[in-house]
Write a structure and sequence with these properties.
This protein has three domains: about 5-145 and about 265-325, FAD/NAD(P)-binding domain (3-Layer(bba) Sandwich); about 150-260, FAD/NAD(P)-binding domain (3-Layer(bba) Sandwich), CATH 3.50.50.60; about 345-445, FAD/NAD-linked reductase, C-terminal dimerisation domain (Enolase-like, domain 1), CATH 3.30.390. It is α/β, with parallel strands linked by helices. A hairpin with a 5-residue loop joins strand 12 (about 245) and strand 13. It has twelve helices and 21 strands. The structure holds NADPH dihydro-nicotinamide-adenine-dinucleotide phosphate. NADPH dihydro-nicotinamide-adenine-dinucleotide phosphate binds near residues 179, 199, 205, 343 and 344. The site of NADPH dihydro-nicotinamide-adenine-dinucleotide phosphate has 22 residues, from helix 6 and strand 17.
Length: about 450
């Protein structure tokens, strides 16, 4: 008989926590997980998945317009936000149930309540029950960060975007990162007048400069307004419930919603870290070693709460590596090199490896190949919008250091190409591959 109630107690049933729970259980561990919200976590409940469905839903606006050139007459087409919203929320319910079933099928005990660590092997649940475990895994994720200023409580975050009663006529979006650009695309396509307000003078810092400039140019052509170097002074509510947004150095903006997308902060409050000597870093994240172990030997942490790379597939890898290491007798670490990433803007951006600037700084001798093209479907639909693919190589070897794309379906294309970049292939390997014609992806083997 074990001296503990469980071999593993996981706090948080999101992407990282669920993977770690079910893999540890498959290795024979007795596992429990505590989740105070809904099983599935940010990605499934209020992030990647419902967002992507909204991207699909909103894109029909353009597709229906383009359909005319393909001979279709669609009379009486109309859009219902409540219909899209409710279908998306139903799908979230389906996934929530699927994740719960997965845990049940793996004999993972679910406590639907908050857990606080009270000792290296002990947690206390909100109900007051105490549970012991040989290992504790913290997988509590992160939440949206909203800076404080007068009226900041009148603003919403991505969490609320999936539950709006009505589609806003005018929206102000604060931030220039992933969430800001994704929701700017969704709302603009659905007919909302969108103004993106950022503290800096660029969007998507960290992405390739030419690619993000292309998105900015396309978004401005689509009618999205941008205000750069525009700090928020205050937001005030009118009697009719609409909002006046005051920015330093810019005219006020009248809007129905103000969405803050200014980064996410790790969920460490009330976890009881002080009881076990774990001190969060300056950004509030839990420091861990290569095996995701905290400063307390029996406690590990994975996913956004560790703020290594805030992406779902990374949290899943970390959860898997943790379970392999601790319960599978296979010490494993996560390789953070060449992680592909995408912004589901309209058009989307996809990227893997170093940007041109990073490559130049790190390697000096590099070469840049590119293709600036108008996708066939855009030509036919009389859309001016151009795609841009860029490949950065180390010279003289020709090894690919980075690949950056903007254009329809670029995340779908990049995922396959990322295998080649990760494998260390050269530009020559792409040149040696015959083009698949006609496709957008063929531009990758025709780069000049
Ligand atoms: P991002 O980190 O992508 O962008 C944050 C933006 O807010 C930046 O433009 C930043 O400006 C600005 N900002 C940061 N702090 C402040 C502040 N105090 N006041 C004003 N502006 C500020 O964060 P998001 O919220 O868009 O997304 C959070 C994370 O979620 C992402 O980092 C990503 O990892 C993940 N995510 C991934 C998605 C995907 O993979 N497609 C989709 C959605 C989210 P500056 O550039 O000057 O720092």
């Amino acid at each position: 008989m074990s001296e503990y109630d469980f071999d593993l107690f996981v706090i948080g049933a999101g992407s990282g926590g669920v993977r770690a729970s079910r893999v540890a259980s498959a290795y024979g561990a007795k596992v429990a997980v505590a989740e105070e919200h809904r099983v599935g976590g940010t990605c499934v409940i209020r992030g990647c998945v419902p967002k992507k469905l909204l991207v699909y839903g909103s894109h029909f606006a353009e597709d229906l317009e383009d359909a005319k050139n393909y001979g279709w007459t669609i009379e009486g087409a109309s859009f219902s936000w409540p219909a899209l919203r409710d279908h998306v929320l139903n799908d979230v319910d389906r996934l929530n149930a699927a994740y719960t079933t997965t845990l049940n099928n793996h004999d993972v005990h679910i406590f639907h309540e908050r857990a606080t660590i009270i000792a290296p092997h002990r947690v206390r649940l909100a109900s007051g029950q105490e549970v012991s475990a040989k290992f504790i895994l913290i997988a509590t994720g992160a939440r949206p960060f909203v800076p404080e200023f007068p009226g900041s409580d009148l603003c919403i975050t991505s969490n609320e975007m999936f539950h709006l009663d009505a589609l806003p006529k005018r929206a102000v979006i604060a931030g220039g990162g992933y969430i800001a650009n994704e929701f700017a695309g969704i709302l603009n396509a659905l007919g909302t007048r969108v103004t993106v307000v950022n503290r800096g003078n660029t969007i998507l810092r960290g992405y390739d400069e030419q690619v993000r400039d292309r998105l900015l140019q396309i978004y401005m052509t689509k009618g999205i307004e941008f205000k750069f170097k525009a700090p928020f002074e205050k937001v005030e509510k009118r009697e009719d419930g609409t909002l006046d947004v005051y920015l330093t150095g810019h005219d006020p903006i009248h809007a129905d919603i103000v969405l803050f997308a200014t980064g996410r902060v790790p969920n460490v409050e009330g976890l009881g870290l002080g009881h076990v000597g774990i001190t969060p870093d300056d950004l509030g994240a839990i420091p861990v070693d290569d095996y995701s172990k905290t400063s307390c030997d029996s406690i590990y942490a994975v996913g956004d709460v560790t703020n290594r790379v805030q992406l779902t597939p990374v949290a899943i890898r970390e959860g898997q590596a943790f379970a392999d290491t601790v319960f599978g007798d296979k010490p494993s670490t996560v390789d953070y090199g060449c992680i592909p990433a995408a912004v589901f803007s309209q058009p989307p951006i996809a990227s893997v490896g170093l940007t041109e600037g990073e490559a130049r700084n790190r390697y000096g001798n590099i070469r840049v190949y590119s293709s600036d093209f108008r996708p066939m479907r855009n030509v036919f639909a009389h859309r001016a919008e151009r795609g841009l693919y860029k490949m950065i190589t180390e010279e003289p070897s020709g090894r690919i250091l980075g690949l950056h794309m903007i254009g329809p379906d670029s995340p779908e294309i990049l995922q396959a190409a990322a295998v080649a970049v990760k494998a260390g292939l050269t530009k020559q390997a792409f040149d040696d591959t015959v083009a698949l014609h006609p496709s957008m992806a063929e531009e990758l083997v025709l780069l000049k």
